[in-house]
Protein backbone atom coordinates (compact mmCIF):
# COMPACT_ATOMS: atom_id res chain seq x y z
CA UNK A 1 0.00 0.00 0.00
CA UNK A 2 1.02 3.60 -0.57
CA UNK A 3 1.09 6.07 2.36
CA UNK A 4 -2.17 7.65 1.13
CA UNK A 5 -3.99 4.29 1.27
CA UNK A 6 -5.48 3.16 4.57
CA UNK A 7 -7.80 0.39 5.68
CA UNK A 8 -11.07 1.42 7.25
CA UNK A 9 -13.07 -1.58 8.41
CA UNK A 10 -13.09 -3.91 5.40
CA UNK A 11 -12.51 -1.12 2.86
CA UNK A 12 -9.45 0.47 1.36
CA UNK A 13 -9.54 4.27 1.34
CA UNK A 14 -7.50 6.79 -0.65
CA UNK A 15 -6.98 9.81 1.62
CA UNK A 16 -10.59 10.38 2.59
CA UNK A 17 -12.09 8.72 -0.46
CA UNK A 18 -13.49 5.22 -0.44
CA UNK A 19 -12.58 3.45 -3.66
CA UNK A 20 -16.18 2.32 -3.92
CA UNK A 21 -17.27 5.98 -3.87
CA UNK A 22 -14.73 6.90 -6.55
CA UNK A 23 -15.98 4.03 -8.71
CA UNK A 24 -19.52 5.18 -8.27
CA UNK A 25 -18.77 8.82 -8.99
CA UNK A 26 -16.35 8.43 -11.90
CA UNK A 27 -16.92 4.89 -13.20
CA UNK A 28 -14.33 2.22 -13.97
CA UNK A 29 -11.78 1.60 -15.33
CA UNK A 30 -10.40 4.71 -13.71
CA UNK A 31 -6.88 6.15 -13.50
CA UNK A 32 -6.38 7.69 -10.06
CA UNK A 33 -3.54 10.15 -9.49
CA UNK A 34 -2.49 11.36 -6.05
CA UNK A 35 -1.23 14.95 -6.13
CA UNK A 36 0.10 15.15 -2.60
CA UNK A 37 2.59 12.31 -3.04
CA UNK A 38 3.67 13.70 -6.42
CA UNK A 39 4.29 17.12 -4.85
CA UNK A 40 6.26 15.52 -2.04
CA UNK A 41 8.48 13.63 -4.46
CA UNK A 42 9.12 16.76 -6.52
CA UNK A 43 10.25 18.61 -3.40
CA UNK A 44 12.39 15.67 -2.28
CA UNK A 45 14.18 15.64 -5.61
CA UNK A 46 14.57 19.43 -5.60
CA UNK A 47 15.97 19.49 -2.07
CA UNK A 48 18.36 16.66 -2.83
CA UNK A 49 19.72 18.61 -5.81
CA UNK A 50 20.56 21.73 -3.82
CA UNK A 51 24.27 22.39 -3.65
CA UNK A 52 26.84 25.22 -3.50
CA UNK A 53 28.65 24.24 -6.72
CA UNK A 54 26.40 24.66 -9.72
CA UNK A 55 22.84 25.38 -10.75
CA UNK A 56 20.61 22.31 -10.93
CA UNK A 57 17.27 21.83 -12.60
CA UNK A 58 14.72 19.09 -12.18
CA UNK A 59 12.84 18.22 -15.36
CA UNK A 60 9.84 15.94 -15.50
CA UNK A 61 10.00 13.34 -18.29
CA UNK A 62 6.49 13.94 -19.50
CA UNK A 63 6.41 10.87 -21.76
CA UNK A 64 5.64 9.00 -18.52
CA UNK A 65 2.29 10.77 -18.13
CA UNK A 66 1.07 14.01 -19.66
CA UNK A 67 -2.29 15.72 -19.45
CA UNK A 68 -3.18 19.41 -19.19
CA UNK A 69 -3.63 18.95 -15.44
CA UNK A 70 -0.23 17.29 -15.04
CA UNK A 71 1.36 20.08 -17.11
CA UNK A 72 -0.30 22.62 -14.81
CA UNK A 73 1.20 20.90 -11.76
CA UNK A 74 4.64 20.90 -13.41
CA UNK A 75 4.41 24.62 -13.97
CA UNK A 76 3.10 25.27 -10.45
CA UNK A 77 5.94 23.26 -8.90
CA UNK A 78 8.42 25.29 -10.94
CA UNK A 79 10.10 22.33 -12.60
CA UNK A 80 11.05 21.91 -16.23
CA UNK A 81 9.58 19.54 -18.79
CA UNK A 82 11.35 16.92 -20.86
CA UNK A 83 9.41 16.67 -24.12
CA UNK A 84 9.91 14.27 -27.02
CA UNK A 85 7.54 15.55 -29.68
CA UNK A 86 5.75 18.65 -30.91
CA UNK A 87 2.63 17.12 -29.35
CA UNK A 88 4.20 17.15 -25.89
CA UNK A 89 5.39 20.74 -26.39
CA UNK A 90 1.85 21.70 -27.39
CA UNK A 91 0.21 19.99 -24.40
CA UNK A 92 2.80 21.26 -21.92
CA UNK A 93 2.37 24.84 -23.10
CA UNK A 94 -1.44 24.59 -23.06
CA UNK A 95 -1.21 23.39 -19.47
CA UNK A 96 0.98 26.34 -18.49
CA UNK A 97 4.59 25.16 -18.78
CA UNK A 98 6.90 27.88 -20.07
CA UNK A 99 8.61 26.63 -23.24
CA UNK A 100 11.86 28.15 -21.95
CA UNK A 101 11.80 25.40 -19.29
CA UNK A 102 11.46 22.61 -21.85
CA UNK A 103 14.17 20.25 -23.08
CA UNK A 104 13.28 18.73 -26.44
CA UNK A 105 14.58 15.16 -26.83
CA UNK A 106 14.17 12.29 -29.24
CA UNK A 107 15.63 10.77 -32.38
CA UNK A 108 14.34 11.83 -35.76
CA UNK A 109 12.62 15.00 -34.65
CA UNK A 110 10.82 16.07 -37.80
CA UNK A 111 11.65 19.37 -39.52
CA UNK A 112 8.16 20.58 -38.62
CA UNK A 113 8.78 19.65 -34.98
CA UNK A 114 12.13 21.44 -34.87
CA UNK A 115 10.57 24.50 -36.49
CA UNK A 116 7.67 24.36 -34.02
CA UNK A 117 10.07 24.11 -31.08
CA UNK A 118 12.09 27.08 -32.35
CA UNK A 119 8.93 29.15 -32.93
CA UNK A 120 7.62 28.28 -29.46
CA UNK A 121 11.03 29.24 -28.01
CA UNK A 122 11.71 25.93 -26.36
CA UNK A 123 14.68 26.55 -24.05
CA UNK A 124 16.96 23.66 -25.00
CA UNK A 125 16.97 21.22 -27.87
CA UNK A 126 18.82 17.98 -27.16
CA UNK A 127 20.35 17.12 -30.52
CA UNK A 128 20.32 13.39 -31.23
CA UNK A 129 22.76 13.16 -34.10
CA UNK A 130 24.82 14.96 -36.70
CA UNK A 131 22.12 15.06 -39.37
CA UNK A 132 19.64 16.53 -36.94
CA UNK A 133 22.12 19.25 -36.01
CA UNK A 134 22.46 20.06 -39.68
CA UNK A 135 18.71 20.26 -40.17
CA UNK A 136 18.28 22.34 -37.03
CA UNK A 137 20.93 24.82 -38.08
CA UNK A 138 19.28 25.26 -41.49
CA UNK A 139 15.91 25.92 -39.88
CA UNK A 140 17.48 28.42 -37.49
CA UNK A 141 19.32 30.17 -40.30
CA UNK A 142 16.09 30.63 -42.22
CA UNK A 143 14.40 32.05 -39.16
CA UNK A 144 17.39 34.17 -38.19
CA UNK A 145 17.39 32.67 -34.70
CA UNK A 146 19.89 31.16 -32.30
CA UNK A 147 19.05 28.05 -30.25
CA UNK A 148 20.53 26.67 -27.06
CA UNK A 149 21.29 22.96 -27.41
CA UNK A 150 22.88 19.89 -25.83
CA UNK A 151 24.17 16.85 -27.69
CA UNK A 152 22.91 13.44 -26.63
CA UNK A 153 25.79 11.06 -26.08
CA UNK A 154 25.77 7.36 -25.58
CA UNK A 155 28.38 6.75 -22.89
CA UNK A 156 28.24 2.96 -23.35
CA UNK A 157 27.26 2.24 -19.76
CA UNK A 158 25.18 -0.91 -19.44
CA UNK A 159 22.40 -0.69 -16.91
CA UNK A 160 20.66 -3.88 -15.87
CA UNK A 161 17.10 -3.51 -17.02
CA UNK A 162 14.68 -4.90 -19.60
CA UNK A 163 16.11 -5.09 -23.16
CA UNK A 164 13.41 -2.80 -24.55
CA UNK A 165 14.06 0.00 -22.09
CA UNK A 166 17.86 -0.09 -22.26
CA UNK A 167 19.05 2.93 -24.18
CA UNK A 168 22.82 3.14 -23.96
CA UNK A 169 24.23 -0.04 -25.49
CA UNK A 170 26.49 0.21 -28.54
CA UNK A 171 23.68 -0.41 -31.01
CA UNK A 172 21.25 2.00 -29.38
CA UNK A 173 19.24 4.20 -31.71
CA UNK A 174 19.72 7.14 -29.35
CA UNK A 175 22.53 9.67 -29.41
CA UNK A 176 26.06 9.62 -30.76
CA UNK A 177 28.51 7.18 -29.21
CA UNK A 178 31.55 8.31 -27.25
CA UNK A 179 33.32 5.40 -28.98
CA UNK A 180 32.64 6.71 -32.48
CA UNK A 181 35.95 7.64 -34.08
CA UNK A 182 34.26 10.69 -35.64
CA UNK A 183 32.77 11.95 -32.39
CA UNK A 184 35.16 14.89 -31.99
CA UNK A 185 34.54 15.91 -35.55
CA UNK A 186 30.76 15.78 -34.95
CA UNK A 187 30.99 17.93 -31.83
CA UNK A 188 33.30 20.44 -33.44
CA UNK A 189 31.00 20.94 -36.41
CA UNK A 190 27.94 21.38 -34.16
CA UNK A 191 29.88 23.84 -32.01
CA UNK A 192 30.87 25.81 -35.07
CA UNK A 193 27.34 26.27 -36.38
CA UNK A 194 26.49 29.95 -36.17
CA UNK A 195 22.92 29.42 -35.04
CA UNK A 196 23.44 26.69 -32.45
CA UNK A 197 24.72 27.47 -28.98
CA UNK A 198 26.08 24.09 -27.84
CA UNK A 199 25.91 24.38 -24.05
CA UNK A 200 26.82 20.81 -23.17
CA UNK A 201 25.99 17.14 -23.22
CA UNK A 202 23.19 14.75 -22.32
CA UNK A 203 22.94 11.04 -21.58
CA UNK A 204 20.24 8.65 -20.41
CA UNK A 205 21.40 5.14 -19.64
CA UNK A 206 18.06 3.37 -19.33
CA UNK A 207 14.96 3.09 -17.25
CA UNK A 208 13.85 1.30 -14.06
CA UNK A 209 17.47 1.10 -12.81
CA UNK A 210 18.12 -0.20 -9.30
CA UNK A 211 21.88 -0.07 -9.35
CA UNK A 212 22.88 3.46 -8.33
CA UNK A 213 26.48 2.67 -9.28
CA UNK A 214 25.43 2.79 -12.96
CA UNK A 215 24.64 6.50 -12.60
CA UNK A 216 28.03 7.14 -11.01
CA UNK A 217 29.72 5.24 -13.84
CA UNK A 218 27.82 7.22 -16.44
CA UNK A 219 28.79 10.48 -14.70
CA UNK A 220 32.45 9.44 -14.75
CA UNK A 221 32.27 8.59 -18.45
CA UNK A 222 30.52 11.84 -19.30
CA UNK A 223 32.96 14.01 -17.32
CA UNK A 224 35.93 12.17 -18.67
CA UNK A 225 34.58 12.75 -22.15
CA UNK A 226 33.96 16.43 -21.38
CA UNK A 227 37.61 16.71 -20.41
CA UNK A 228 38.63 15.15 -23.73
CA UNK A 229 36.49 17.64 -25.65
CA UNK A 230 37.83 20.55 -23.68
CA UNK A 231 41.45 19.45 -24.08
CA UNK A 232 41.35 18.37 -27.72
CA UNK A 233 38.87 20.86 -29.13
CA UNK A 234 38.92 23.68 -26.64
CA UNK A 235 35.13 23.49 -26.36
CA UNK A 236 33.77 24.20 -22.87
CA UNK A 237 31.08 21.87 -21.50
CA UNK A 238 28.86 24.07 -19.34
CA UNK A 239 25.93 21.74 -18.72
CA UNK A 240 25.48 18.00 -18.38
CA UNK A 241 22.02 16.45 -18.29
CA UNK A 242 22.21 12.97 -16.77
CA UNK A 243 18.75 11.81 -17.85
CA UNK A 244 16.29 9.85 -15.73
CA UNK A 245 15.75 6.16 -15.13
CA UNK A 246 15.61 5.80 -11.33
CA UNK A 247 13.87 2.55 -10.45
CA UNK A 248 10.59 2.33 -8.54
CA UNK A 249 8.61 -0.22 -6.57
CA UNK A 250 6.08 -2.34 -8.45
CA UNK A 251 6.36 -5.60 -6.52
CA UNK A 252 8.34 -6.96 -3.58
CA UNK A 253 11.19 -7.91 -5.91
CA UNK A 254 11.87 -4.26 -6.70
CA UNK A 255 14.32 -2.56 -4.38
CA UNK A 256 14.63 1.09 -5.37
CA UNK A 257 17.39 3.14 -3.79
CA UNK A 258 16.61 6.24 -1.77
CA UNK A 259 16.80 9.36 -3.94
CA UNK A 260 17.20 11.67 -0.94
CA UNK A 261 20.29 9.72 0.02
CA UNK A 262 21.70 9.08 -3.43
CA UNK A 263 21.35 12.46 -5.14
CA UNK A 264 23.44 14.54 -2.71
CA UNK A 265 26.24 11.95 -3.05
CA UNK A 266 25.85 11.97 -6.80
CA UNK A 267 26.09 15.78 -6.92
CA UNK A 268 29.14 15.69 -4.64
CA UNK A 269 30.73 13.10 -6.92
CA UNK A 270 30.01 15.17 -10.03
CA UNK A 271 31.54 18.20 -8.33
CA UNK A 272 34.69 16.31 -7.31
CA UNK A 273 35.21 14.68 -10.68
CA UNK A 274 34.53 17.85 -12.66
CA UNK A 275 37.03 19.72 -10.46
CA UNK A 276 39.56 16.95 -10.96
CA UNK A 277 39.07 17.07 -14.73
CA UNK A 278 39.03 20.86 -14.88
CA UNK A 279 35.45 21.12 -16.16
CA UNK A 280 33.68 24.32 -15.20
CA UNK A 281 30.08 23.10 -14.98
CA UNK A 282 27.44 25.82 -14.65
CA UNK A 283 24.46 23.52 -14.62
CA UNK A 284 23.47 19.93 -13.94
CA UNK A 285 20.07 18.58 -14.93
CA UNK A 286 18.19 15.33 -14.37
CA UNK A 287 14.90 14.28 -15.91
CA UNK A 288 13.10 11.50 -14.07
CA UNK A 289 9.65 10.39 -15.19
CA UNK A 290 8.66 7.14 -13.53
CA UNK A 291 10.24 7.89 -10.14
CA UNK A 292 8.25 11.13 -9.87
CA UNK A 293 4.82 9.77 -10.71
CA UNK A 294 4.58 5.99 -10.83
CA UNK A 295 3.57 5.39 -7.23
CA UNK A 296 1.14 8.28 -7.26
CA UNK A 297 -0.99 6.41 -9.75
CA UNK A 298 -3.30 3.42 -9.55
CA UNK A 299 -6.04 1.97 -11.71
CA UNK A 300 -9.43 0.91 -10.47
CA UNK A 301 -11.30 -1.82 -12.36
CA UNK A 302 -14.50 -3.79 -11.92
CA UNK A 303 -14.40 -7.57 -12.03
CA UNK A 304 -16.64 -9.14 -14.65
CA UNK A 305 -16.78 -12.84 -15.45
CA UNK A 306 -14.72 -15.44 -13.67
CA UNK A 307 -13.58 -18.52 -15.54
CA UNK A 308 -11.93 -21.75 -14.51
CA UNK A 309 -9.98 -23.31 -17.40
CA UNK A 310 -9.53 -27.05 -17.87
CA UNK A 311 -5.80 -26.35 -17.74
CA UNK A 312 -6.23 -25.25 -14.13
CA UNK A 313 -6.12 -21.47 -14.42
CA UNK A 314 -8.68 -19.27 -12.75
CA UNK A 315 -9.31 -16.07 -14.67
CA UNK A 316 -10.87 -12.96 -13.21
CA UNK A 317 -11.71 -10.61 -16.06
CA UNK A 318 -11.56 -6.83 -15.69
CA UNK A 319 -13.26 -4.05 -17.63
CA UNK A 320 -9.90 -2.75 -18.92
CA UNK A 321 -6.53 -4.37 -19.56
CA UNK A 322 -3.82 -3.94 -22.18
CA UNK A 323 -5.56 -0.92 -23.68
CA UNK A 324 -4.98 1.04 -20.47
CA UNK A 325 -1.84 -0.82 -19.30
CA UNK A 326 0.29 -2.31 -22.07
CA UNK A 327 3.33 -2.89 -19.83
CA UNK A 328 2.73 -6.53 -18.82
CA UNK A 329 2.19 -7.53 -22.47
CA UNK A 330 5.13 -5.47 -23.70
CA UNK A 331 7.75 -5.95 -20.98
CA UNK A 332 6.44 -8.79 -18.81
CA UNK A 333 5.97 -6.07 -16.19
CA UNK A 334 4.54 -7.16 -12.86
CA UNK A 335 2.03 -5.42 -10.62
CA UNK A 336 0.38 -5.88 -7.25
CA UNK A 337 -3.35 -5.54 -6.74
CA UNK A 338 -6.00 -5.70 -4.05
CA UNK A 339 -9.77 -5.94 -3.71
CA UNK A 340 -10.50 -2.61 -2.03
CA UNK A 341 -13.92 -3.71 -0.82
CA UNK A 342 -12.50 -6.90 0.78
CA UNK A 343 -9.26 -5.52 2.12
CA UNK A 344 -9.29 -7.45 5.39
CA UNK A 345 -10.49 -10.76 4.02
CA UNK A 346 -8.05 -13.66 3.96
CA UNK A 347 -6.41 -14.82 0.75
CA UNK A 348 -8.49 -17.58 -0.80
CA UNK A 349 -7.31 -18.43 -4.29
CA UNK A 350 -4.83 -17.71 -7.07
CA UNK A 351 -6.21 -15.71 -9.98
CA UNK A 352 -5.00 -14.48 -13.33
CA UNK A 353 -6.29 -10.99 -13.97
CA UNK A 354 -7.01 -10.65 -17.67
CA UNK A 355 -8.36 -7.80 -19.76
CA UNK A 356 -11.12 -7.80 -22.32
CA UNK A 357 -9.08 -7.26 -25.49
CA UNK A 358 -8.88 -9.87 -28.26
CA UNK A 359 -5.36 -10.89 -27.42
CA UNK A 360 -4.15 -13.83 -25.32
CA UNK A 361 -1.35 -11.65 -23.97
CA UNK A 362 -3.89 -9.27 -22.46
CA UNK A 363 -3.09 -10.28 -18.91
CA UNK A 364 -2.44 -7.58 -16.33
CA UNK A 365 -1.37 -9.90 -13.50
CA UNK A 366 -0.42 -13.56 -13.75
CA UNK A 367 -1.10 -15.59 -10.63
CA UNK A 368 -2.06 -13.32 -7.77
CA UNK A 369 -3.41 -14.56 -4.45
CA UNK A 370 -6.60 -12.75 -3.52
CA UNK A 371 -9.63 -13.20 -1.28
CA UNK A 372 -12.64 -14.83 -2.99
CA UNK A 373 -13.22 -12.75 -6.14
CA UNK A 374 -16.81 -12.19 -7.21
CA UNK A 375 -18.36 -10.43 -10.16
CA UNK A 376 -18.86 -6.78 -9.30
CA UNK A 377 -15.88 -6.56 -6.96
CA UNK A 378 -13.49 -3.68 -7.48
CA UNK A 379 -9.85 -4.43 -8.25
CA UNK A 380 -7.15 -1.85 -7.58
CA UNK A 381 -3.78 -2.10 -9.34
CA UNK A 382 -1.08 0.08 -7.80
CA UNK A 383 1.96 1.67 -9.42
CA UNK A 384 0.31 2.64 -12.69
CA UNK A 385 1.17 6.36 -12.58
CA UNK A 386 3.77 6.15 -15.36
CA UNK A 387 3.64 4.70 -18.87
CA UNK A 388 0.02 3.58 -18.53
CA UNK A 389 -2.17 6.49 -19.63
CA UNK A 390 0.62 7.72 -21.91
CA UNK A 391 0.80 4.35 -23.71
CA UNK A 392 -2.93 3.65 -23.78
CA UNK A 393 -4.56 2.66 -27.06
CA UNK A 394 -7.95 2.25 -28.67
CA UNK A 395 -7.33 -1.36 -29.69
CA UNK A 396 -10.71 -3.05 -30.18
CA UNK A 397 -12.19 0.47 -29.99
CA UNK A 398 -12.14 0.25 -26.24
CA UNK A 399 -12.41 3.79 -24.81
CA UNK A 400 -9.46 5.18 -22.85
CA UNK A 401 -10.44 5.51 -19.17
CA UNK A 402 -11.04 8.71 -17.27
CA UNK A 403 -8.45 10.11 -14.87
CA UNK A 404 -9.22 11.61 -11.51
CA UNK A 405 -6.83 13.55 -9.29
CA UNK A 406 -6.97 13.33 -5.53
CA UNK A 407 -5.59 16.12 -3.41
CA UNK A 408 -6.41 15.40 0.22
CA UNK A 409 -10.15 15.77 0.57
CA UNK A 410 -10.61 17.04 -2.99
CA UNK A 411 -11.12 14.84 -6.02
CA UNK A 412 -11.56 16.11 -9.54
CA UNK A 413 -11.72 14.78 -13.06
CA UNK A 414 -8.71 15.67 -15.25
CA UNK A 415 -9.40 13.41 -18.23
CA UNK A 416 -12.92 12.57 -19.37
CA UNK A 417 -13.69 8.99 -20.25
CA UNK A 418 -13.53 8.60 -24.02
CA UNK A 419 -16.81 8.19 -25.83
CA UNK A 420 -17.36 6.08 -28.95
CA UNK A 421 -17.70 9.37 -30.81
CA UNK A 422 -14.23 10.38 -29.59
CA UNK A 423 -12.81 7.15 -30.95
CA UNK A 424 -14.06 7.86 -34.47
CA UNK A 425 -13.66 11.63 -34.29
CA UNK A 426 -11.04 11.65 -37.06
CA UNK A 427 -12.70 9.04 -39.24
CA UNK A 428 -14.17 10.13 -42.56
CA UNK A 429 -16.98 8.19 -44.17
N1 LIG B 1 15.10 10.96 -20.34
C1 LIG B 1 15.19 10.29 -21.51
C2 LIG B 1 16.05 10.80 -22.58
C3 LIG B 1 14.44 9.12 -21.69
O1 LIG B 1 14.55 8.46 -22.82
C4 LIG B 1 13.58 8.66 -20.65
C5 LIG B 1 12.77 7.47 -20.82
C6 LIG B 1 13.52 9.41 -19.46
C7 LIG B 1 14.30 10.55 -19.35
C8 LIG B 1 12.65 9.02 -18.31
O2 LIG B 1 12.94 7.77 -17.79
P1 LIG B 1 12.25 7.30 -16.41
O3 LIG B 1 12.78 8.19 -15.32
O4 LIG B 1 10.79 7.45 -16.58
O5 LIG B 1 12.65 5.88 -16.27
N2 LIG B 1 7.73 2.77 -21.66
C9 LIG B 1 8.79 2.20 -20.84
C10 LIG B 1 9.81 3.23 -20.45
C11 LIG B 1 10.43 3.93 -21.63
C12 LIG B 1 11.37 4.99 -21.17
C13 LIG B 1 11.85 5.80 -22.30
N3 LIG B 1 12.70 6.87 -21.93
C14 LIG B 1 8.15 1.55 -19.61
O6 LIG B 1 6.93 1.56 -19.50
O7 LIG B 1 8.85 1.02 -18.75
Automatic annotation (TrEMBL):
Ranges for domain Orn/DAP/Arg decarboxylase 2 N-terminal: 37-293
HAMAP family the UniProt entry points to: LysA
Pfam families linked to this entry: Orn_Arg_deC_N
Source species: Ruoffia halotolerans
Protein name (record): Diaminopimelate decarboxylase
Family: Belongs to the Orn/Lys/Arg decarboxylase class-II family. LysA subfamily.
Domain of life: Bacteria
SUPFAM superfamilies xrefs: Alanine racemase C-terminal domain-like (SSF50621), PLP-binding barrel (SSF51419)
Catalytic activity: meso-2,6-diaminopimelate + H(+) = L-lysine + CO2
